[in-house]
Amino acid sequence: MSNPAILVENVTVHYGDVLALDAASLSLEPARICGLVGMNGSGKSTLFKAIMGMIKPDAGRVLINGEPPAKARKEGGIGYVPQSEDVDWQFPLSVRDVVMMGRYGHQGFTRRPSKADRAAVDLALDRVELSEFANRQIGQLSGGQKKRAFVARGIAQGATMMLLDEPFAGVDKRSETTITRLLKELASDGCTILISTHDLHALPQLCDEAVLLMRRVLMHGPPEVVLQPEHLAMAFGLDVLNRDLPDPDLNDRDLPGLTVSNPQGRS
Amino acid sequence: MDLFNILLEPLSYDFMVRAIVTTALAAIVCAVLSCWLVLIGWSLMGDAVSHAVLPGVVLAYIVGAPFALGALVFALIAVTLIGVVRNTSRVKEDAAIGIVFTSLFALGLVLISVTPSQTDLNHIIFGNLLGVSIPDLIQVLVLGVVAFTILILKRRDLTLYAFDPTHAHAIGLSPKRLGALLLGLLALTSVVALQTVGVVLVVAMLIIPGATAYLLTDRFSRMLVIAPVISAVCSIAGIYLSYYLDTASGAMVVLTQGAAFAAVYLFSPRQGLIGTRLAKARRKKAVALAA
User: Fold this and answer.
1) CA separation for the pair B141, B72 (Å, rounded)
2) SS3 per residue for B124-163
3) Could you read off the pLDDT of A203-252 as tens digits, one per residue?
4) Which residue of A has its CA nearest to B213?
5) How many Å lie between the alpha carbon of A51 and the closest alpha carbon of chain B?
6) Is the CB of residue A12 less than 8 Å from the CB of residue A207?
7) Is A204 inside a domain boundary?
8) pTM for the full model?
9) Which end of chain B has less Cβ packing within 10 Å, N or C?
10) Number of residue pairs across A and B with CB atoms under 8 Å?
11) With an 8 Å Cβ cutoff, are B217 and A92 in contact?
C-alpha cells in the first residue's frame, strides 16, 4: 500500500499560551491539489511550518511519503513558495539566481552550479515562461511573475511536493490563469500541491480537494462541497453569530481575530 | 612634489606600510561581511557584537589567550543575552540590543581600568593604526584570511539565509547554523578591525561598504566585489589623508568611507538622489535631439 504524500496526525502546536493547532489531522494523496482554507489566525502558516518541520508539534506527528519531514527535506522533495510579504523584493538577486537556489540541496559544499544545475534552471524558467526575464532583478517582475519565479525554484529543485502560501494575493486575473494551469500540469506530473489561501473564488477551478481549517481540520472533501456557504461559515466563524452566545468571553478566546461578532476582539 | 612622491613618501616608514596593509586587509574582510549585514538588517547587531567583544578581548589579554577566542566567547554571550531579554520580557529587540551591548562594553572599559599596562588596551577602543606591530599584523592577517575564506566559500548559503531562510530549511539546510556562522564571523571580523579603527568605529567598516555597494548594483555577486574595492581604496586614501593632514588615522578612514557613501548616495545612476535625475534629464535631452 502506498503512503499518503502528506500525513498530519493529531498535530497540536502552542505558541506560549496561544493554541495555534488543536489536534489537526490531514491526509493527502500524491499528485493532488489541495486548497487550505481558513481565516487569518486559523493555523494555516503553522500547519505549513509543521509540515516543513520548522516547528516541533507539542503532540502528534507529520509524515511525508511515510517518512519524517527531515528526510523529505534532505531529499529536496519539499518546495516552498512564500507569500509576498515575506520576501524582500529589493534583494539584489536576479530571477535566475533565485531559481538556482532550488538546486543548492543537490550541490556541493560551496554550491557551485554544474552544467546540470544550469540546465535544470533553464528548463524550469522555460516551464514557467520566465526565460526572457531571467536576468531581471526579482523586484522588477509583476505580481504573477514573482510567484512563477518561486514555483520555478521548486521545479528546478525537483520537488515532489509544493507548499504555496497565498499564491493569488496581488496577482492579476491573467497571471492567476497561468499559475492555475502551471500547477495543474505539475500535479499531472505527480507533484502534490498544498495551497494556503483565503481567496476562495480561485479554488474550484484549481483544486481537487479543499480543507477547512480552524485550528482543527473542520472538513476535507471536494471543493464544491467544502466551499458551500454553510461550511465556510464554520471556518470563518460566522455561524457563531446565528447562535446564542452563552459567554462572549469564551467566544473571544476561542476565535482570535473574529471581528464581526466582537469588535473588542479587533486588535 | 608630484603625485608619485606624494604616494611614495609615507611608504618609506615601516609603520606606515604596516598601517596600510593592516587597514586594507581589515577593510576588505569587513566590507565582504557588510554585504550580508545590510541586507539581513543586522547593522545594529554588527554594532552590538563589535562593542560587546571588548571584555572578551581584555580578558584574553589578561590571561594571555588569543584575542579572537575572547571575542568569540563574548559575541556568543551578547547574542544569547539579547535573545533571552527579547524573548522573556516585553522589551523589544532594539532595546534589548542596546542594553546588552552597552553593558558589556562598559564591563570592558571597567576591566581595562583595573588592568595594568593601560596604553595597550586603550588602543583597542580607538584603534592604533600607526602603532601596528608585526605580531599584530600577523594576527590580523591570519584572522582576516580565515574569515574571508569562509565567507567566500559559503557565500551562496549565506545569501540564501539572508534572502529566504524558510527555503533554506525546506531543502535541508539549517538556518540556525548559518545564522550562527555569520555571527561567529562577525565576532572574528570585529577583532580584525579593532586593530585598525578601534571598537567604537568598527561598525562603520561593517556597514558603510555594503550599503554603498547596494546603491550601485542589483546583483549580490557584484556587491561582493564593489564593497571591498571601495572599502580598500577609501581606507588607504584615509590613511594618506591622515598622514598629510596630521589627523587621527582610524577616524580618517571611517570619514573617507562615509564620504564615499555620500557621493554614491547622491550620484549613483541607479539609486542616487541626483544621479537618477541627471540620467533622466540626459534621456530627455537625447529624445529632444532626436526629434
Assistant:
1) 17
2) HHHCCHHHCCHHHHHHHHHHHHHHHHHHHHCHHHHHHHHH
3) 888 999 999 999 999 999 999 888 888 888 877 765 444 444 333 443 44
4) A92
5) 10
6) no
7) yes
8) 0.87
9) C
10) 74
11) yes
Q: Range of B69's domain?
A: 3-290
Under DSSP, the state recorded for A42 is S
The pLDDT tens digits for A10-30 are 999 998 888 999 999 999 999
Total number of domains constituting chain B: 1
Give the residue from B154, B164, B216, B219 with the most A CB atoms within 10 Å of its CB, the best one to mutate. B164
Total tally of structural domains belonging to chain A: 1
Q: Is B160 on the interface with A (CB under 8 A)?
A: yes
| pLDDT tens readout for residues A108-161 | 888 999 999 999 999 999 999 999 999 999 999 999 999 999 999 999 999 999
Domain assignment present for A264: no
User: Residue A181 belongs to a domain with what CATH number?
Assistant: 3.40.50.300
DSSP class of residue A131 equals G
Residue A251: inside a domain:
no
ipTM: 0.86
With beta carbons under 8 A apart, name residues in chain A contacting B178. Answer: none
- Kindly state whether residue A177 falls inside one of the protein's structural domains: yes
The total of other beta-carbon atoms located within 10 Å of residue A219's CB is 19
Alpha-carbon distance A211 to A232, whole Å?
10
Mutate to test the interface with B, among A54, A64, A111 (most CBs of B within 10 A): A111
Domain span at residue A56 reads: 6-223
Does residue B86 sit at the A interface (CB-CB below 8 Å)? no
Q: What is the CATH number of the domain that holds B26?
A: 1.10.3470.10
